[in-house]
Design brief:
5 helices, 2 domains, mainly alpha, about 75% helix
Length: about 130
């Protein structure tokens, strides 16, 4: 009963978005998946350490604050970039294993995905070493 009520309310909101944005495919994608996008954005923001950077502000002159207890705003941006880079690498590696992908694209997706994962690991380890 509650699920049906929530679904009807969500369908009303989706219908309003589709009417206001039109019938383009981008608008349909955004109106149908906006909750998922908001969830991912919130997850990345929280995982990057935004709350720590807001609660314990440090000197702005540091890109990476050399203390394990503090975190600068720029370091938060770097952490968010590393998270997104690693997630993109995992997704591209996932795409390489799908059967719907063209055969010549499998190696390309896998190599690019692994490269992105390695780059995210390198930057993450560099930040950890710089913090001391």
């Amino acid at each position: 009963m509650i699920t049906a009520w929530i679904d009807s309310r969500l369908n009303r909101v989706r219908n309003r978005f589709s009417k206001s944005f039109g019938k383009s495919s981008l608008a349909t994608q955004l109106s149908s998946g906006w909750v998922e996008v908001l969830y991912i954005v919130a997850l990345v923001i929280m995982s990057a350490g935004t709350v720590n950077a807001i609660i314990q502000p440090v000197n702005v002159g540091y890109v990476i604050f050399p203390n394990p207890g503090g975190q600068s705003v720029t370091e938060t941006v770097v952490d968010a970039f590393v998270l997104l880079l690693g997630a993109a690498g995992v997704y591209l590696s996932y795409l390489s294993g799908r059967q719907t992908t063209k055969t010549r694209m499998v190696n390309f997706f896998l190599i690019i995905g692994l490269f992105l994962i390695l780059m995210a690991l390198y930057i993450g380890i560099y930040v950890l070493n710089a913090k001391g």
